[in-house]
């Protein structure tokens, strides 16, 4: 294989025991190999089993004896060579680890140099093997690039060298495919059976590899190899100048491996964090009431494995105390509105461990309730039965129940009823309650893993989510993250960290895919813009050269459809300052003169040939180009019967023009913009960066969020894409400006998740209640 790493070939050692490695490096690699061997050995057996099943089902449609004999031989070799296959595969991987310190070789460069020195004949099967395995390795690498980056950095530390790329990583996809190629020789398969083995290997590895890389990265981190390596986004989220809205704060970060602290982040085309490698984390601004911002804290200490309670900085604790004060004011105001509704009896407070145990039993029994308040009533009723008297929650626990209930109630209003995201949020209610009781940072730190997980999951049920925004891979990531949390009956902090890290990693991969898709759409839109500009330029030059003269109808059609395409293509290729463009304008002037003058002699054959060549460049068949060239070059002097002209016109109308299907749709004539519409037009035209916008759909009275990815300053065409980076609208800027002025479109400061919007609304409501209660107290004081 051209791209397979064979660094171990330059080293004599085939095992870690024989390799000359530093003691600590050897110990780390042995643990990595042990972890890898345990997972991969089982998966290799699955690959062989699936291959055997597939080969057994395959057969010749005409019962060809040769085909049946080959199938029988393949199955027999598979059964007898299973152990040799697995042993050879794992031995190749160990050899790669043993050769970690060997010089890396660029096999593509070596092949190019070898091809200069001489040519060799290769077997077709060998070429097919190389192409198939390279494609498999490339696909696996593209789907796991983030984890491979982390792995390459850590293996670079072990080797004392620069980071390993995917092609040279000893346990990278190219190394695995190289080992598969070597191990398949133990089975002595014919080509068709070998290709089936490769197919089953890719199928199994696609499902396993991301989990395997995550486990190996965690193993290396626990061994002290870059334990705080994390992803930190690099692009700042655009915000409106001068806006004081909390929506302009930085987006939620991705939590680094082994680091409980927040890291800065921004959102890409799909509202998903776009990462880069970093070794440190920093804080972010949170939406909190005045006076509640946490004081700057030193980075959190690494979490000890197996510990459940995270550290609680004093600044964040003060933030929760401020939230408790707001809740107290809310209860005072509600008591005034509903006199006599409070129970003043003193009850025994429940210990937090007892509350958490009751919640754990509710989860085990699949207790159903509509709201967090209902869960609270069930918990207190069960505790009353156990204690034999009335009990109550402690003040911090009671405030946690109340605050989470307000938050989730507001979040439900921000989500579409019956959506997948709403169902996932429902499944997170009790785990989030357990987490919030243990760790009050959930309420005051937007970079908390529980908040980040909830934000990501809530997007799956947003009211503004379009039908074409849903992606099975994206929904699968959300479902797996929620399932990971549900599997832990205690709702531990570490579980949320693990689920959030896995989710963010997958979302970052989707963000890159979305960004690539959007970039392709923008490039295509720019191409359409250039074509439209070229067509406009061609039309302008034809009108200038006509100078008020009118062409015969037949020649006008040829000029507008055929020759206009020639002018547009030349303008696209060479520009208007080129000699080719000037020469073509002279040709156009000659054609117009021939079409508008009577009694002019036939054109020079060389001129006709030049016109024919220009037409052939835009895709006209030689016969059609010859007929059109004679008509254009000779003008009225060309003698052609009516049937010939009619046939030529039919062929022109049936033929696709240059760029047809990709050109921007012509705008309709609209009335003059009023002052409000003109202001909206200038606002949209002044946008320097892509912006998130919301449209009100007229058909079903719903709202959909899109991304205004590009605006043409020449043709005023726009490109609007969905969350997957796919084009949804190509409206004229004038049309969008009228929608904006009419209130059917809104330009957003940022792509805010429903959970973040719900939290902002909850905080704003509590602040208003606090301000009203304070104002009432001041008025009562003046009255006294």
Number of helices: 25
Instruction: Tell the overall outline.
Output: flat
Radius of gyration: 35 Å
Portion in beta strands? under 5%
Percent range for helical residues? 55-70%
Taking the sheet with the most strands, its summary is: 5 strands, antiparallel
Distance between the termini: 91 Å
Strand order of the largest sheet: 8-7-6-5-9
Class by alpha and beta content = mainly alpha
- Mean of pLDDT: 77
Give the number of DSSP strands: 9
Task: Report low-confidence residues grouped into runs of 5 or more.
Answer: 1-11, 112-122, 233-316
How would you describe this protein?
By secondary structure, the protein is mainly alpha-helical. The protein is 59% helix and 4% strand. The protein is built from 25 helices and 9 strands. The chain has helices at residues 23-57, 65-80, 82-98, 107-117, 124-143, 145-159, 173-184, 191-222, 314-337, 352-364, 372-387, 395-413, 420-438, 441-444, 449-458, 472-487, 493-546, 553-574, 579-596, 605-617, 622-634, 642-654, 675-685, 733-741, 754-783; strands at residues 230-231, 277-278, 348-349, 391-392, 691-697, 702-711, 718-721, 727-729, 745-747. The strands form 3 sheets. A 5-stranded antiparallel β-sheet has the order 8-7-6-5-9, with helices on both faces. Strand 5 (691-697) and strand 6 form a beta hairpin. It starts with 22 loop residues before the first helix and ends with a helix. The model is unreliable at 1-11, 112-122 and 233-316 (pLDDT under 50).
């Amino acid at each position: 294989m051209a791209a397979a790493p064979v660094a171990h070939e330059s080293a004599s050692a085939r095992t870690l025991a024989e390799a000359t490695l530093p003691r600590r490096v050897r110990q780390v690699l042995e643990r990595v190999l042990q972890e890898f061997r345990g997972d991969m050995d089982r998966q290799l057996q699955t690959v062989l089993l699936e291959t055997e099943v597939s080969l057994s089902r395959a057969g010749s449609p005409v019962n060809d004896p040769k085909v049946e004999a080959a199938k029988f031989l393949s199955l027999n070799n598979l059964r007898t060579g299973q152990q040799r296959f697995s042993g050879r595969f794992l031995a190749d991987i160990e050899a790669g680890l043993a050769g970690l310190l060997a010089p890396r070789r660029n096999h593509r460069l070596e092949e190019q140099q070898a091809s200069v020195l001489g040519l060799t004949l290769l077997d077709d099967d060998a070429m097919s093997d190389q192409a198939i395995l390279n494609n498999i390795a490339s696909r696996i690498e593209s789907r796991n690039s983030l984890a491979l980056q982390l792995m390459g950095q850590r293996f670079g530390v072990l080797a004392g060298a620069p980071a390993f790329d995917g092609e040279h990583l000893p346990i990278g996809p190219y190394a695995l495919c190289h080992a598969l190629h070597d191990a398949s020789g133990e089975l002595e398969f014919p080509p068709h059976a070998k290709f089936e083995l490769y197919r089953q290997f890719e199928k199994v590895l696609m499902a396993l590899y991301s989990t395997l890389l995550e486990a190996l990265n965690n193993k290396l981190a626990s061994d002290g190899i870059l334990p705080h390596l994390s992803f930190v986004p690099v692009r700042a989220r655009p915000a409106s100048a001068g806006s004081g809205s909390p929506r302009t704060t930085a987006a939620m970060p991705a939590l680094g491996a082994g680091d409980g602290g927040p890291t800065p982040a921004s959102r890409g085309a799909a509202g998903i964090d776009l990462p880069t490698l970093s070794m440190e984390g920093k804080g972010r601004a949170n939406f909190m009431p005045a006076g509640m911002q946490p004081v700057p804290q030193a980075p959190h200490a690494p979490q000890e494995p197996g510990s459940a309670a995270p550290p609680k900085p004093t600044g964040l604790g003060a933030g929760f105390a401020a939230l408790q004060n707001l809740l107290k004011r809310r209860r005072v105001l509600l008591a005034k509105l509903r006199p006599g509704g409070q129970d003043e009896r003193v009850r025994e407070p429940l210990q937090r461990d007892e509350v958490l145990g009751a919640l754990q039993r509710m989860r085990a029994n699949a207790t159903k309730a509509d709201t967090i308040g209902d869960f609270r009533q069930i918990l207190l009723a069960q505790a009353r039965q156990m204690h034999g008297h009335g009990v109550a929650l402690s003040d911090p626990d009671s405030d946690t129940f109340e605050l989470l209930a307000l938050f989730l109630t507001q979040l439900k209003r921000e989500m579409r009823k019956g959506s997948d995201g709403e169902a996932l949020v429902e499944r997170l209610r009790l785990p989030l309650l357990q987490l919030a009781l243990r760790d009050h940072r959930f309420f005051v730190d937007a970079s908390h893993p529980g908040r980040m997980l909830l934000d990501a999951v809530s997007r799956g049920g947003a009211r503004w989510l379009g039908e074409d925004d849903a992606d099975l891979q994206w929904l699968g990531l959300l479902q797996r993250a929620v399932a990971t949390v549900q599997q832990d009956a205690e709702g531990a902090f570490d579980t949320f960290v693990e689920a959030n890290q896995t989710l963010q990693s997958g979302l970052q991969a989707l963000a890159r895919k979305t960004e690539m898709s959007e970039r392709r759409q923008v490039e295509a839109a720019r191409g359409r813009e250039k074509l439209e500009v070229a067509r406009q330029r061609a039309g302008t030059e034809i009108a200038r050269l006509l100078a008020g003269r009118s062409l015969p109808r037949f020649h006008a059609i040829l000029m507008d459809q055929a020759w206009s395409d020639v002018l547009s293509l030349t303008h696209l290729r060479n520009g208007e300052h080129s000699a080719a463009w000037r020469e073509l304008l002279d040709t156009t002037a000659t054609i117009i003169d021939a079409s508008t003058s009577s009694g002019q002699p036939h054109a020079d054959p060389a001129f006709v040939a030049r016109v024919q060549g220009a037409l052939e460049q835009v895709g006209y068949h030689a016969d059609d180009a010859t007929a059109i060239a004679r008509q254009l070059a000779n003008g009225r002097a060309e003698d052609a019967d009516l049937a010939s002209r009619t046939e030529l016109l039919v062929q022109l109308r049936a033929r696709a023009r240059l760029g047809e299907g990709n050109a921007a749709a012509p705008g309709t004539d609209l009335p003059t913009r009023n002052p409000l519409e003109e202001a909206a037009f200038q606002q949209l035209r002044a946008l320097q960066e892509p912006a998130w916008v919301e449209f009100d759909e007229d058909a079903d009275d719903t709202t959909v969020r899109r991304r205004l990815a590009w605006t043409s300053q020449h043709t005023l065409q726009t490109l609007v894409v969905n969350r997957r980076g796919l084009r949804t609208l190509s409206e004229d800027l004038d049309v969008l400006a009228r929608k904006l002025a009419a209130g059917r479109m809104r330009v957003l400061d940022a792509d805010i998740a429903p959970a973040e919007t719900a939290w902002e609304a909850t905080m704003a409501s509590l602040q208003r209640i606090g301000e009203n209660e304070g104002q009432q107290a001041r008025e009562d004081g003046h009255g006294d």
